[in-house]
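Lab notebook page, bench 4
Experiment: in silico fold of construct C2
Operator: M.H.
Input chain length: 248 residues
Purpose: comparison with the prior construct
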Amino acid sequence: MLDPGGRPTAARRAVSRATAGDTAPWTAQPRRHRRRDRRRKVSRARGRVRRMPSSALTSWRKRRNERLDDLLRAHRSVGGSARGRRWRTTTLNEALLLRLAAEFQGFARDLHPDACDVFAEWTAPSNPTLRQVVRARLIEGRELERGNAHPGSIGADFGRLGFDVWPALAVRDGRTAAHNRSLERLNDVRNGLAHANEAKLAKLRAEGVTFALGTYRKWRRDLDILADNLDAETAAQLGRLFGRQGPW
């Protein structure tokens, strides 16, 4: 049975499928579903399958971001939300930058022991004593306990898990160098403000760093992405090291 164009009719196609053991009716897949399936295939090929976040990342997205949002609302109550310079918000701008640095340090400090727990558990699943020894060595003297979450301390502490953090993150996301730079600048500002180092702050201003709300927003966006990437890459590296599915 052929249609006017010489192609098999729908009835003929149905018979053919039934003969082949396929009785399900054929329907065209919506275009949006085809795009979604292609994205999933690309994600699997690149090792970017959707996954659950770690408890540290969940806390960053919720509790830590809520505290930042509370401070931002206080900023708006003083300076308003319209465009233009706000003479009365200088101290609040500085408080936002200090809080952003503190919350990101808290995120990194939470993520590292979570990863160490997984490393120790997978190394010695049936030996609690050895597991405790491995974990103790991984967290002993870590830099994130003593100082800021700057690129050097993150690289040193997460490097104990067996991978070079920043090169791995650069492969995952081509914007990593810019995120790294934002983190460095944020910590420079944090140190200058926390220690009331006017010479350091003047030097940063001379280099073009502004302590404005726009700077805070940009750095926060960059750290949001960096937190996601660090969480994902740590999970992926642990999975590859032990030949297992990601730990969270």
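Observations: The chain has one domain: 55-242. The first helix runs from residue 10 to 19.
Next step: discuss at group meeting.
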